[in-house]
Amino acid sequence: MPLDLAIILPTLNERGNLAPLVERIERALGRDGWEVLIVDDDSKDGTADEARELALEDRRVRVIQRIGRRGLSSAAIEGFCATAAPYVAVMDADHQHDPALLPRMLASLKAGEADICVASRFAEGASTADWAEPEREKLSGLANTVARAITGVDLTDPMSGYFMLPTATARALVPRLSGIGFKILLDLLATSKETMRVSEFPLNFAARRAGESKLDRAVLFDFLAGLYDKTLGRVIPTRFALFGTVGALGVVVHYAVLFALFPRLVDAFWEAQLAAVLTAMSFNFWLNNWLTYRDRRLKGWGEFLRGWAGFVVTCAVGGFANVAVATLLESQGVFYALAALAGILIGSVWNYALSSRFVWGRF
C-alpha cells in the first residue's frame, strides 16, 4: 500500500514506551500505508537510540533527534514538514492516547466530513477515569472554555494533544504558527483564517504506561503564553514579554529585600543594595528558568548553578549598559526619568539577548 498516514510522536525520555506503541499502532492500522515519525528532544534515556534500533528493523519507523531545540509544538511542526504522507496525526508516546481511533479519524478525513479530527477526553462517551489527576482535569476544563472563545471552534477538548489533519493543511499553516509550548492543536485552530470543520472522537484517556509526565504546574502559564502569542505576539515577541514580566516582578523583590534590610538590619546602604540585587537576580533566574524558558529548562544542581552564574554575569553587563546609556542621555539634557527609562529598556533587551544565547541557548 502507498504511504497514507504519518503518526508524529514528540518524545522526551520515552525509551521504554516506543516499541509497545509501534505494535499497538500496527494492530490498529495493519501492516502497510503508515509511518511513525519520532521527533526526540535529545532525551537523556536514549530514546533516539531506541528509535534508531526500531528503524533498523522496521522501515515504517523514522527518527529526528533535535539538538538545542525543545517543545512539543515545535516538534510537531518539524514532523509536518518531514513527511510525504497526505495525512498526519500527532499523539503522545506515553500510551495515554489509544491508537485504535486512528482508522476512524482517517476515514472521516478521507470522506470529507471534517478538516481536522480530534480525540476528546470530554466528549460524550469519553473517559478520564484512569487519568487520576483531578487537578489537571479541572485546569483543562478552564483552558477549554478560554480556547473556545479564542478559536471560535465549538470543541469539547481544544487542548487535546491527539488529532489528525491533512498534511497539506498543516504545512500551509506552519509559517504562521507560534510553535510555543505544548498545545499545537490550539495553535492550528487559532491560526487558520477560516474556521475548521471538526469531528471529535471520544477518547478513553489512559494512565501513562512508563516514565514521568513532562507537564507541571507551569502548564497554565504555557497556555496563557500561547494565547498572548496569537494576539499580541506579533507586536512584542512572546518570550521577551515574559522576560520583561519576570523582570518587573524582580523589581518588587528587590525593593522588598532592600526595605527589609535597610536601615533596620544593615547600616550600610551598599550592603543592603548588594543583597537586594543578588536576591532579585536569583529570583529572576529561577522564574525565567521555570516559565520563560520552560522548554529549555536547566535541570540538575550542576547545570542550574552554572546557569545562575551565567545569568548574574549577563545581568551585570546589562546593568552597566543601563547606567551608561541613562547617564549619557541625562548629560545631554534628557529629563532624568526618561533617561532612566531608556537605560532600563536597553539593559532589559541586552539581558534578554545575552541570557537567551548564553544561559538557555547553546554556548
Describe the structure.
The structure is a single chain. By secondary structure, the protein is an alpha/beta fold. The protein folds into 2 domains: 5-215, Spore Coat Polysaccharide Biosynthesis Protein SpsA, Chain A, CATH 3.90.550.10; 238-358. Helices cover 53% and strands 10% of the residues. It has helices at residues 15-29, 47-57, 72-82, 102-110, 134-151, 167-173, 184-191, 219-231, 238-261, 269-292, 301-331, 336-358; strands spanning 5-11, 34-40, 61-65, 87-90, 116-120, 163-166, 198-202. A 7-stranded mixed β-sheet has the order 3-2-1-4-6-5-7, sandwiched between helices. Strand 2, helix 2 (47-57) and strand 3 (61-65) form a beta-alpha-beta unit. The radius of gyration is 24 Å and the shape is elongated. The model has no long low-confidence stretch (mean pLDDT 84).
Question: Rough shape?
Answer: elongated
Tell how many strands the DSSP assignment holds.
7
Which sequence of SSEs, written as H and E, runs from N to C? EHEHEHEHEHEHHEHHHHH
Biggest sheet, spatial arrangement of strands: 3-2-1-4-6-5-7
**How many structural units, i.e. domains?**
2
Mean pLDDT over the residues: 84
Largest sheet: 7 strands, mixed
Low-confidence stretches: none
Give me the number of helical elements.
Answer: 12
**Helix/strand/pairing category:** alpha/beta
Q: What share of the residues does DSSP label as strand, in percent?
A: 5-15%
Radius of gyration: 24 Å
**Helix percentage:** 40-55%
CA-CA gap between termini:
46 Å
Instruction: Quickly name the level 1 CATH class of the largest domain.
Output: Alpha Beta
Please name the fourth-level CATH homologous superfamily of the largest domain.
Answer: Spore Coat Polysaccharide Biosynthesis Protein SpsA, Chain A
The CATH topology of the largest domain turns out to be Spore Coat Polysaccharide Biosynthesis Protein SpsA, Chain A
**Named CATH architecture of the largest domain:** Alpha-Beta Complex
